[in-house]
What does this fold into?
Amino acid sequence: MNHLLEIKDLNVIFHIFGADVQAVRGISLQLNKGETLAIVGESGSGKSVTSKAVMGLIPNPPGEIATGEILFEGRDLVKYSKKQMQKVRGKEISMIFQDPMTALNPTMKIGKQIMEGLIKHQSLSKHDAKKRAIELLQLVGIPNPEKRVDEYPHQFSGGMRQRVVIAIALACNPKILIADEPTTALDVTIQAQILDLMRDLQEKTGTAIILITHDLGVVANLAQRVAVMYGGKIVETGTLDEIFYNPKHPYTWGLLSSMPKLHAKTDKLLAIPGTPPDLSNPPKGCPFAPRCPHAMKVCTEHMPAYTELSATQKAACWLLDERAPKVDPPTTIGVGGES
Amino acid sequence: MTAKSNAEVTKELFVPAYLSDTESEKISGKSVSAWKDALRRFLTNKGAMLSMIILTVIILLALIGPHIFGYDIDNQDVSRANLPPKIEGLTWLPAFSGYENGVDIYKEKNISKNYWFGTDQFGRDLWTRTWKGTQISLIIALIATLADVLIGVVYGGVSGYFGGAVDNALQRILEVIAGIPSLVWIILLILIMQPGLITITIAILATSWLSMARIVRGEMLKLKNQEFVLASRTLGAGDGRIIFKHLIPNSLGMIIINTMFSVPNAIFFEAFLSFIGLGIRQPQASLGSLINDGYQMLQIHPYQTLYPGIIISLLLICFNIMGDGLRDAFDPKLRR
Amino acid sequence: MIRYILKRVGYMIVTFYVVITLTFLAMKMLPGTPFKFANRLSPEQLNQLKHYYGLDQPIPIQYLHYLWNFIHGNLGGSFQYGMQPVTEFLFQRFPISLQLGFESMIFGTVLGIFLGIVSGIYRGRFLDWGTVTLAVVFISIPSFIFAAILQYFFSVQIRIFPVIGWSGPMTHVLPVVSIGVGVMATIARFMRTEMVEVLNQDYIVTAQAKGLSTNAVIFRHAIRNAMIPIVTVIGPLTSAVVTGSLVIENIFAIPGIGSQFVDAIVTNDYPMIMGTTELYAGLFIVTILIVDVLYGVIDPRIRVSGGKSI
Ligand SMILES: Nc1ncnc2c1ncn2[C@@H]1O[C@H](COP(=O)(O)OP(=O)(O)OP(=O)(O)O)[C@@H](O)[C@H]1O
Ligand code: SF4
Ligand SMILES: [Mg+2]
It folds into this structure.
């Protein structure tokens, strides 16, 4: 049980308009040193909320962590005070965001935005922090960093800004980097560059990465393990190979078959008919039941429990019960051969 | 799998369940139309609802108030001048006791009738005059707003819809007009015309449509290239039809919100002009001119300013709160 | 940026020219003026008047005449005060109004920004609710009613502040507060909205994710960004402050151009009305220009891109 990060039975609730939105419902995950874990799932499945919970950044009100533990090196971050959490953020765990166009303060110089964390966590002097900022810009591949530290975000292109965001996140050599859809807002060629950069940096620094994405192509590129989320729950988790070659959950099947081709990167791949469940009033059975082509009566009535399929793979689906009819994964799953 | 759930899960449940389309839709939540949603939000806004009630009461009183005692707006009688407010049954309230500085003025002047808001220096019944004045304020607000909506919507609509050179020209004109403070416009107009109800209305009109024109133009620019408009155009709809059938109905939210804000503006300007002596002339009264009259007496008979002052403040506050409420209702981004 | 400023200055000149022309036309359209009040003037004054307006000439010539006079700072003479030059009055009284305006503006802006920030940070709590409610009330109540209330309680009842006048610091309090609360309320509301909006921005989350303290996030990242757009309300506020000063100067007998203007209107002192109108318009136009340029200077997004984004 020596995980770098272990989430146990996490529940996050947002109280809005008298309704309680159960954005995350009993998630458990582990992350080991230096590995990359991908969390995939369609919009609204609770991926970002999970990562914000780890960062201690659930806006409160309206949100709160109702129950659960987030163990970082054995210590429960949920119990941390605001002050203690500030020492973790940016230093031990940091985060990069989806939209580089809005993730940087438009009226503060790039250099200063990188330096802030350094000054706070490593007590560097202004001068040293600036030197380090220039190094970091160099590291993330920004040409002419001495000059560019003194520029403002709007003088940078989208890809360049995402590099800056990565530089900010890596400034204090964190042990965990959470990347929430780091390439979604970028165009295809830039996406590839940013992914390459992240892989490079991970090799150099040994940082563990939680990669959140819609894009299974990105997952295949970067991750060793995958967790598939649906309706605020993890419906299946396993190693990259297990999820891609031996998926057991119908939602994972749906995800994989809606992926046109492994390396064709497109946003619009989640073409599973229907809409995700209303998390303010979640169904009492399997959240995927209304859209599941294999749904059985039991699915709408009872929540399926996890079935351990191997030491590393488990899935929550009634099809895995011995009483269930045998169903084969669709042949449309477009993974075969490649990769 | 816990033992408990296992007990309930029987073999018969493992049969395919086909959910119909309607059912799957029901599960994924019903869609409330934007208008209904806005209305619901507005109706649950306590401040806006309270304002609406207060406004209704004021409007009703403005309609019936002047007829209660049968006085005219200019019924002068010096024998009953400067009487403080007195309401039978409320005399235990200092404000309605008929006493001033510890003296029962009604007894002193031997007057048996009650004047609910008191009388002014000519002995005119202030209750009657105040509600008459409220009528004036409301009428001006109404006319100014109606015309404001018409001019502003048409100007902005034409500018935004046709775009190009038309838009450019209209925008330059608008920029110049807006470059001059509305007070200056209003005073220039009032100098040319004789002070009075119509002049004030025109003067307020001359400037208040500007913001409406801007907003409607912005909406037009935003809407005119959206799919449903393009679709309608492909089907051969003319400009007029597109503007009135599609664009204006879709900008209605913004138009209503902006109207709600131009009403208090019109009321304020009328009061302001009447207060500095450019508005309604004697013996006519508006809330502004009543406050002005009363203001001369502020140190001796503060009640003469008090009631018109309270009513105009309530009018302005309530309209503004309702405007805020509508804006929040239509623009959920700003709610909470 | 330079090109942008030049363009704005161009608009400004056009607008001002329109104002001058309009005042001229208004003058021409006045019923029976300026001789409507001829009985109040001596024969030489009448002659002077005739000469000033070139009344014996056709209207286009009169117009050029008027422009010529205007460019040379000659706004004519006041009817009320025996044809003394209007400019003299304006020069004498404008500084007082300017001071009143500035003091009100500063009072309102400082308090408003503070309230707006607090309200935005504590959004949804009682403090926020109180500020928002207070702001609506202060925006709604006309300054002259507010002034009457203040005067009645603080000057007539408890006699802390003088009823009227403009001599020592004590005399400034009530007029400045009367005009300033409206400014305060407007700015507080605006600042609150901006603050709420900025606090919802992604870069605030980035700042929090760096591990900065709440104070650092608010002071270094939120407030600065929220405050920049405040500059844009200064234009409309100037206009509101001018409107307010008209009545407030009258109520408190402050010898500024506002009270002079109201006097002029009531006594039909047309040259004075025209001159003051032009001064107000000029003031407003220049304010808008300054605000525009200032906005470009303090917001690096506009500054660097050369004002393209406007
Ligand atoms: N600040 C918030 N206030 C209220 N509800 C929230 C908030 N943040 C998230 N939620 C709710 O939590 C649920 C999960 O949102 P989350 O952002 O985690 O989805 P996601 O999986 O990251 O989706 P996406 O792929 O679109 O980023 C959503 O239904 C959303 O309504
Ligand atoms: S539990 Fe039932 S509804 Fe859910 S995924 Fe499995 S088969 Fe489909
Ligand atoms: Mg997300």
Q: What stands out?
A: The two ends of chain C are 11 Å apart (CA to CA). Residues A 47-48, 180 surround magnesium ion (ligand 3) (CB under 6 Å).
